[in-house]
Every structure is written in C-alpha cells, then in structure tokens.
Amino acid sequence: xxxxxxxxxxxxxxxxxxxxxxxxxRLLLSDFLRHRLGLTGTHVGCxxxxxxxxxxxxxxxxxxxxxxxxxxxxxxxxxxVEGLAGEDGELSPVQQAFHEAHGMQCGFCTPGFLxxxxxxxxxRPQASEEELVDALSGNLCRCTGYAxxxxxxxxxxxxxxxGRA
Amino acid sequence: xxxxxxxxxxxxxxxxxxxxxxxxxxxxxxxxxxxxLVPMMNFRLAVPEALVDLRRIEELRYLRIGADGALxxxxxxxxxxxxxxxxxxxxxxxxxxxVTHIGHPQVRSRGTVCGSLAHHDPHGELPALALALxxxxxxxxxxxxxxxxxxDFFVSFYEVALEPGELVVEARFPAPPAGSGWSFREIARRHxxxxxxxxxxxxxxxxxxxVVFGAAxxxxxxxxxxxxxxxxxxxDDLHASAEYRRQVAVLLAGxxxxxxxxxxxx
Lengths: 165, 266
Hints:
The complex is a heterodimer. By secondary structure, chain A is α+β, with helices and mostly antiparallel strands. Chain A has 5 helices and 5 strands. Chain A has helices spanning 29-36, 93-101, 110-123, 129-136, 146-164, and strands at 8-14, 17-23, 55-58, 61-64, 77-79. Chain A has a 5-stranded mixed sheet, with helices on both faces. The longest helix of chain A has 19 residues, at 146-164. By secondary structure, chain B is an alpha+beta fold. Chain B folds into 3 domains: 7-52; 60-173, Uridine Diphospho-n-acetylenolpyruvylglucosamine Reductase, domain 3 (2-Layer Sandwich); 181-263, 2-Layer Sandwich (Enolase-like, domain 1), CATH 3.30.390.50. In chain B, 31% of the residues lie in helices and 24% in strands. The longest helix of chain B is centred in the last third of the chain and has 22 residues, at 242-263. In chain B, helix 2 links the parallel strand 2 (28-31) and strand 3 (50-53).
C-alpha cells in the first residue's frame, strides 16, 4: 500500500478544464487552487470557515475551500470565480450586477460573494429577500459594503428572473 | 493556520474504515463533512495522526424512511441534503427548522448530520434536535453494531458515548406522532453563529420533550420550563454571562413550549 502520508496526484475538473497537481494530505483545497494550479481568484481570508472569501462550487454546491482538503476533491468538478465570465470575457449576470451597483470596495471578499450568489440564483432564480440574505450571510465584507452588495444581489436576481420569464 | 501533517485514508466500506480505526498505535479521527474538524486542525487544536475519510463509503450515503416510519440518516448525508428532502420538511418540521440554523449554506453543503452528533458541541443544534426527537444513534465497532439513545449518547463537551475504534453510521429519528407540535428557538450574536443558548421542543399527545442547549456541558432534556433555571449550568465567557444565558434559557423555554402547544392539534 502506498504511504498514506505521502503527496499524491489530485485530478479534478476546474471550470470545465481537466487539471492535476500534487498534494500532500494536509494541503487545503484553497491553497491547492492558488499555489498548485495558479488560480489566485479564490481568496484566502480567515482559513477557518468564517469569512467565505474562499467559497467555490464543488460538484455544484458552494463550499468553503479552506475547509476541504485537496485530496478530498479528487475527481470532483469545481467552479471558481475565474469560470464565471464567458470565454470572450463577457461578465456573468452576477458579475455585471456587482459592476453596475458597485457591489465592492476593496474587492477582497468579492470572489466569495459572486460564487455564493451564483449558486443561489442557479438553484432559485426568483430568490426572496430572505433567501438572498441567508445565502450571503456566510460571506464577510470588512469594508462593510453590504448595502451595495445586496443591491447588486437584487439586480442579479431580477435579471435572472427576467431571463427565465 | 495550516494543519499539521497526517496520513489520509479514504476506505470504500465500513469494514475497511473500522480496520483502520482499530489500529491503536495511530491516533485516528473520522472525517465526514469536516466543518468542525478541519477548522480545529487549521488552528492545530486537533492534531490527528491519521484521518479516515468517509467520502467513498457509498453504503453510508442515504436518507430514507424505514419500515417503522423513522427517518434514517446515513453518516455521509449532509445537512443540505436533509434540508432539500420534502419528506423531512413535512414529517420532521422541527428537525428541518433547527438545521436551517446551522452555520451557513456553504457549511451545510459539506457538514453531515451524524458528524455534528459525533462532534457534540453542546451549543450545536443537532445534538439538541436528536434529544428532543428521541433519536437513536447507531455505531459500528470491532464488536459489531449497537444502538445508543440520544439520552445516553451526549456525555460532556465534545464527548459522546463512542468507544475507541467505533464509528457513527446512522442516526434514526422516530416520526413524531400525529398531532404533535414543535418549536425551535435560539439566540446567537449573528445568524449562523453557534447559539448562546437555544431550545428545541416537541409536544406529542403523550409527552413534552423540552431540550435546552448551550446552557450546560450537554443538551438537557426537561419536562417543563419551571425546571430550566435550576437545571442549567451555563458558561460564563466573553460571548455572554452565565446569568444572561440562564435568563434567556428560561424565557425561550416558556416561549417554545407555548408555540409547540399551539401547533399541536388538540
């Protein structure tokens, strides 16, 4: 049997592209994305599951990548903030709404907010105000720009709802 | 903020997991959703030598209603999966409502029902819900399987009635009898935080199960709000004083019982 403490290859799909890298068991998925795959759009804030900056979609569900070991994501399909815009660079509806409503100040928390909101609106395009707040309550903005973030979330929701009508 | 090195195992069956856990020379921890264990490892409050990850054990991935009508939750079932199941929403509304108070969606998508029970944070929602609903926890170990009533499972802070080498494989929540009423209330500094103190209450035609949590080293099962003040042993810390927790526990217990009775038929 292989040494259970040794680094091993982790293969996964990130934004539709097959990627691989080596990870010792203790390497967090957040660090794997940033340091092994060079995908630095996923930000690392608190590293204990409180701030939400490192949120990614793992097999379609929003998760904190600082609370998942990279070895646990072997074989998974990931979406990160780099995968939100179209191939031609066109912003996703959620990104466009954040742009228009100025739903950011320093921008550090933005990738996590974008991913959390994308996950919600893909599951519930007509999300209620309460659902918007609940979906974003696990993401912290230390600039305290929540008013504009929620305005962006409502705009993205309204656009998503229109798109389906 | 980085965990110490450890060995990683991802067995494909319960038997294989038990073999790994049976090795007394290695301090192993079970990894399910990891939403409590991984932060503790990041802080190096937990430094296990090996992790036994349940993620490949398909036999533990289920959420079903058993022959006797009880809800059976396998050890790999996440809190998000439980919340998405309409049978839980209608049949176990107390469980559904209580679980919405756990962390945030990003935590519930990984966090498991059985993992929260095995971890036993006395401020956590699931141990209190298990106690209020009269749940039974099934554990597998070297000597086979045994069932432990929630009343006997939670021992003290982060301590449960698991023996070395044992693994929680299932939680069973009996169906509340027809005509039951329920209530779940908690006070937390922010939505998604652990409760400073909370109450889960189930009123059936036969009995009242009032559980106060966050107010002692384990959730407390009581029959009446008048027992709360004397029963609680609340912590005094920077989040809240013991006296505040005691007062809130008494208040919430009264409110929860009234609401549960209102919801009960007849």
